[in-house]
């Protein structure tokens, strides 16, 4: 559906050229991390990029990070366009048996859980199979850790469930750099009541405090991590939000957030380190979100923003008017009847009748 780029052929050509360029310029991977968020200052074993590297440095080694269609972005009125062809998201195989095991790993940038390719997203232009999920968050002092923002406003954290196009590619690795390779579900996370489903992840964080540590989690229903409404979302074509920032992601960011408790958010913000267990200078894993990128195209939305609200507002106004009118009519009828009764003999019962009326109003 939403491949509305101005000139698809030209874009594809540019993207392909860029891909081959990046492939050629990629060097043998160094042992340590070759990129970081500013806060996760990881010193590099290789001399290629010595010293701390923030996201401003990403394009030096990963040219796509300074290129087109970069994510995340801010969703604001000017770029949103309602698209009635956007069907509700459907997931398949997300209810994973507790006999199966997920691997949870601290990769030095986030906490990541591997997922089975038997999990799928439907209602996209191809079949997409799950590869992994991971989170982005801020730090203890602020409730701003999501990557995508709405009207300039951050949410507390964000969950990404990453899928690859299994109609066209064998696995995540071969799909990751293809323009139609990936589909990510983005779930905005806000502080509210305790969330037992998220706890199934969070209660293992202490086992992966340091980089490269792994643990196992019993299977559970991954759909519990999604918001209830899968029919309301933002849709656009963007990129991985971490190096190598390939512009290969069909994004679906749900409109409604999920809620976790303040304590749960705190656990996420304080449990992990970017550094290995034996590192003499441990660095906390905080603020591992990329800042929003410039975006000059359209984001398609499956819901009629503003419009729906005005319908609701209009119908409530009508309801109020009808109520007031009805009340007024009843009052008028009662009053005229009373006037007639006043001319009669019985005065007292009429007052008690009125009292009854007011007490139940
Ligand atoms: C990289 O790690 C391997 C084993 O994990 C080790 O043999 C090698 O010396 C390391 N290289 C550097 C540059 O640290
Ligand atoms: C998920 O699967 C379990 C059995 O493995 C079942 O008991 C449970 O009802 C399922 N949940 C949903 C929402 O389908
Ligand atoms: Zn992510």
TrEMBL record:
InterPro entries: CA_dom, CA_dom_sf, Carbonic_anhydrase_a-class, Carbonic_anhydrase_a-class_CS. It is an enzyme of class 4 (lyase). It comes from the Eukaryota. It catalyses: hydrogencarbonate + H(+) = CO2 + H2O. Its EC number is 4.2.1.1. SUPFAM superfamilies: Carbonic anhydrase. Residues 1-27 form the signal peptide. The chain crosses the membrane at residues 311-330. Residues 33-303 form the Alpha-carbonic anhydrase domain. SMART domains: Carb_anhydrase. Coiled coil: none annotated. Its cofactor is Zn(2+). Pfam families: Carb_anhydrase. Keywords: Lyase, Membrane, Metal-binding, Signal, Transmembrane, Transmembrane helix, Zinc. Reversible hydration of carbon dioxide. Belongs to the alpha-carbonic anhydrase family. This is Carbonic anhydrase. It comes from Gekko japonicus.
């Amino acid at each position: 559906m939403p491949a509305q780029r101005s000139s698809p052929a030209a874009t594809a050509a540019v993207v392909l050229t860029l891909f081959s360029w990046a492939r050629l310029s990629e060097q043998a991977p160094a042992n340590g991390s070759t990129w970081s968020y500013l806060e996760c200052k990881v010193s590099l074993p290789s001399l290629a990029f010595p010293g701390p590297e923030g996201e401003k440095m990403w394009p030096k080694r990963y040219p796509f990070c300074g290129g087109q269609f970069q994510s995340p972005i801010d969703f604001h009125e000017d770029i949103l366009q309602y698209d009635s062809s956007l069907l509700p998201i459907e997931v398949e195989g997300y209810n994973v048996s507790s006999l199966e095991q997920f691997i949870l790993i601290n990769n030095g940038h986030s906490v990541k859980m591997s997922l089975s390719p038997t999990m799928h997203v439907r209602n996209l232009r191809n079949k997409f199979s799950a590869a992994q999920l991971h989170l982005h968050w801020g730090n203890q002092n602020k409730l701003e850790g999501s990557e995508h923002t709405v009207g300039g406003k951050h949410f507390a954290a964000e969950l990404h469930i990453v899928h690859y196009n299994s109609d066209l590619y064998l696995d995540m690795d071969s799909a990751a750099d293809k323009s139609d390779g990936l589909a990510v579900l983005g779930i905005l996370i806000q502080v509210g009541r305790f969330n037992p489903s998220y706890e199934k992840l969070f209660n293992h964080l202490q086992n992966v405090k340091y980089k490269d540590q792994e643990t196992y989690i019993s299977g559970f229903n991954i759909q519990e991590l999604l918001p209830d409404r899968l029919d309301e979302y933002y849709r656009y074509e963007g990129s991985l939000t971490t190096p190598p920032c390939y512009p290969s992601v069909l994004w679906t960011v749900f409109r409604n957030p999920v809620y976790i408790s303040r304590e749960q958010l705190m656990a996420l913000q304080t449990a992990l380190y970017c550094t290995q267990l034996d590192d003499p200078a441990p660095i906390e894993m905080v603020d591992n979100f990329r800042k929003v990128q410039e975006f000059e195209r359209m984001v398609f939305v499956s819901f009629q923003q503003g419009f729906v609200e005005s319908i609701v507002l209009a119908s409530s106004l009508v309801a109020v008017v009808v109520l007031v009118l009805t009340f007024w009519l009843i009052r008028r009828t009662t009053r005229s009847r009373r006037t007639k009764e006043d001319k009669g003999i019985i005065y007292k019962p009429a007052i008690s009748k009125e009292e009854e009326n007011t007490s139940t109003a």
